[in-house]
């Protein structure tokens, strides 16, 4: 067991691409070595299915869009290649290119209406599209041959030479391999993390500067590319296309392969596709039972194995390799303390927001300045979180204006507000599953320096530079909030207090002009609160504007330069901590304390202190 673990660790330490590349090369040569025609054909079909499944994984597994239109894009690519071939354009590279473009066009045309609405409407539009497909193909009988099939294709060529037999197998394998390199490089980049963040929580995604619509569309368009490639490869396989190949049954096969392999996985697509392709073919009466078989696969894996074989393999591997320890000395060596932050002033003027008849905010004025901690207090339901949501752009105010520096932000989309420099934590920590603490913090860097998809796919120098910066900043932030030793753990496995600190770290890596903290101290133990207090002070001293919503009154008194007290959506009082601590209305409304005439300031404060111990609960 120990030697096995040692071996596993050594494999784990290899660069991430070594194993997949070895597998890919094996795929190219093994079937040729076997020389068995039927196995070779099964493998060709498996590779084509792999491409289709990987596209579905991008949109369904990573971006969380239930889009079943893969078959339509597949058909688009196949007929594009088929028609090119019919008219004498037999070059396979040209066909792959055109088929990819046609598939993206089909994907976007069919995807956009659904994306604008919600994921169910996308599921429905794509579902009907697949059902209608054979009829649509038949309508263009002249060109496609209708139900009789397209039989007029010519043998595909590369550099003018016809490609067939083993050579064509290599073409399919190489195209698939290249696509998987592209897909993997996207997933293992900030764009991949952005997709996972988006799937878990559009709210969180926007708060780190991700445009939800753009990202979903991108995932959907990217997911169409391999479907188009698969189409062109399929068309050249038999030089024959008929509508039956693009049936509803095949759509369910793709879905089943995705679920079996694990849809949030790059290599799960390969495993799922191979299982489904070889599994289905073992059934003697293939066409009759295939729907039943794929249906059973879907049900069994959906119920017993959420996350598919990939998540099972991942968990097993993690157990084998064992827990990865953080080298704290190395982390300390990176620490530099807080760099200067360019704080931006926040000006909220006469902001009103109602939900139905419920007036959550009524003509609220508030100003927060760089280098200062402004605290917002008030009983539950007084509108504190609503005010943060209005500032972030999640809610549009009914009246009033909000300025960040000189920029008016109350008309901006949330991701634009984030990019303008506003970061926040959430009253209920918002942390995506399936990523480590370190990755969750790096997600906060999304709005800082941009790295294009192309740079990520080709791993250009800029990609590596930004990636290194992202990691260094994330380690520093984790060290500042005091949870660096958890960096390699799954983020959602942390206890509440540490999840809050993680959110603070996620904000810090963005070097926020304005930092919004929503009840960030509740659920923290005493040590953590003490550390947080020091940290917030230092963040403000470094230049940031801090707006702190907090129930822990002692923390507020210690930290705030100015306190604004809300009640029923209106500002009830504002002033320095001393002024607020002595304001009779604040004391009675907010804390339920009735100060008697002969109570001195000191005794009120001491009562506040004991209150603050329970004040954090909600
Ligand atoms: P606090 O954070 O001070 O506890 P909130 O800002 O969460 O208070 O809530 C203020 C009021 O606005 C409450 O009455 C709450 O029910 C209402 N409210 C907040 N968000 C929504 C929403 N999305 N839809 C309807 N009502 C809301
Ligand atoms: Mg709240």
Kindly state the percentage of residues in helix: 55-70%
Query: What's the story with the biggest beta sheet?
Result: 6 strands, mixed
What is the spatial order of strands in the main beta sheet? 8-9-10-5-11-12
Shape: elongated
Q: Structural class, from helix and strand content?
A: alpha/beta
Strand content: 5-15%
Low-confidence stretches: 595-600, 609-618
CATH homologous superfamily descriptor of the largest domain: P-loop containing nucleotide triphosphate hydrolases
Radius of gyration over C-alpha positions, nearest whole angstrom: 29 Å
What report would you give on this structure?
This protein has 618 residues and is α/β, with parallel strands linked by helices. The chain has two domains: 19-245, no CATH class; 346-613, P-loop containing nucleotide triphosphate hydrolases (Rossmann fold, 3-Layer(aba) Sandwich), CATH 3.40.50.300. It is built from 27 helices and twelve strands. It has helices spanning 2-13, 18-34, 37-62, 70-86, 92-116, 119-139, 141-144, 166-187, 190-200, 202-207, 212-238, 248-261, 268-282, 286-304, 308-321, 328-334, 384-392, 414-419, 437-442, 453-457, 461-481, 496-508, 526-541, 553-559, 577-581, 584-591, 601-615; strands spanning 157-158, 161-162, 346-355, 358-368, 373-377, 399-404, 407-408, 422-424, 514-518, 545-549, 562-567, 570-575. It has a six-stranded mixed sheet with strand order 8-9-10-5-11-12, with helices on both faces. A four-stranded antiparallel sheet has the order 4-3-6-7, with helices on one face. It has a two-stranded antiparallel sheet with strand order 1-2. Helix 2 packs antiparallel against helix 8, helix 4 (70-86) packs parallel to helix 6 (119-139) and helix 5 packs antiparallel against helix 11. It starts with a helix and ends with a helix. Residues 384-385, 427 line the site of magnesium ion.
């Amino acid at each position: 067991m120990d030697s096995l673990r040692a071996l596993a660790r050594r494999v784990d330490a290899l660069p991430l691409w070594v194993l997949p590349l070895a597998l890919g090369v094996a795929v190219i040569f093994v079937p040729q070595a076997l020389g068995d025609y039927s196995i070779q054909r099964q493998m060709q079909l498996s590779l084509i299915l792999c491409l289709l499944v990987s596209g579905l994984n991008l949109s369904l597994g990573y971006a969380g869009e239930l889009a079943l239109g893969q078959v339509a894009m597949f058909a688009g690519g196949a007929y594009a290649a088929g028609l090119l071939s019919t008219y004498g354009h037999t070059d396979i590279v040209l066909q792959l290119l055109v088929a990819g473009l046609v598939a993206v066009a089909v994907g976007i045309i069919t995807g956009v209406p659904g994306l604008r609405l919600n994921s169910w409407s996308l599921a429905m539009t794509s579902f009907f599209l697949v059902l209608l497909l054979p009829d649509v193909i038949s309508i263009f009988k002249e060109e496609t041959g209708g139900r009789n099939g397209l039989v007029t294709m010519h043998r595909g060529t590369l550099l003018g030479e016809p490609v067939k037999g083993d050579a064509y197998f290599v073409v399919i394998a190489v195209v698939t391999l290249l696509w998987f390199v592209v897909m993997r490089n996207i997933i293992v980049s900030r764009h991949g993390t952005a997709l996972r963040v988006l799937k878990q929580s559009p709210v969180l995604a926007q708060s780190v500067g991700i445009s939800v619509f753009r990202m979903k569309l991108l995932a959907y368009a990217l997911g169409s590319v391999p479907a188009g490639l698969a189409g062109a490869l399929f068309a050249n396989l038999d030089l024959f296309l008929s509508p039956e190949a693009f049936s509803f049954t095949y759509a369910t096969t793709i879905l089943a392969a995705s679920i079996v392999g694990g849809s949030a996985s790059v290599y799960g697509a390969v495993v799922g596709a191979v299982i489904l392709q070889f599994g289905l073919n073992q059934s003697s009466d293939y066409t009759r039972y295939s729907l039943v078989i794929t249906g059973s696969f879907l049900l069994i894996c959906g119920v017993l194995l959420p996350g598919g074989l990939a998540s099972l393999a991942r968990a097993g591997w993690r157990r084998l390799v064992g827990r990865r320890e953080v080298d704290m000395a190395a982390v300390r060596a990176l620490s530099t303390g807080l760099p200067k932050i360019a704080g931006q002033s926040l000006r909220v003027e006469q902001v009103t927001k109602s939900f139905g008849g419920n007036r959550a905010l009524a003509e609220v004025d508030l100003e927060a300045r760089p280098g200062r901690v402004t605290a917002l207090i008030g009983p539950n339901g007084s509108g504190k979180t609503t005010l943060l949501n209005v500032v972030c752009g999640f809610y549009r105010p009914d009246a009033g204006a909000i300025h960040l520096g000189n920029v008016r932000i109350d008309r901006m989309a949330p991701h634009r507000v984030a990019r303008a420099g506003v970061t926040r934590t959430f009253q209920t920590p918002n942390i995506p599953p399936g990523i480590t603490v370190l990755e969750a913090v790096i997600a906060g860097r999304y709005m800082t320096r941009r790295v294009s998809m192309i740079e990520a796919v080709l791993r250009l120098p800029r990609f590596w530079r930004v990636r290194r910066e992202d990691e260094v900043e994330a380690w520093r932030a984790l060290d500042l909030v005091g949870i660096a030793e958890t960096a390699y753990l799954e983020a959602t496995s942390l206890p509440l207090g540490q999840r809050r600190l993680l959110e603070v770290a996620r904000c810090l890596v963005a070097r926020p002009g304005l930092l919004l903290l929503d009840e960030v101290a509740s659920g923290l133990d005493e040590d953590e609160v003490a550390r947080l207090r020091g940290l917030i002070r230092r963040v403000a001293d470094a230049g940031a504007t801090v707006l702190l919503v907090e129930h822990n009154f002692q923390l507020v008194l210690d930290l705030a330069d100015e306190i604004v007290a809300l009640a029923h959506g209106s500002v009830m009082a504002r002033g320095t901590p001393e002024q607020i601590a002595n304001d009779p209305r604040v004391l009675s409304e907010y804390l339920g304390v009735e100060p008697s005439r002969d109570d001195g300031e000191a005794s009120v404060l001491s009562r506040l202190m004991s209150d603050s111990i329970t004040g954090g609960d909600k």
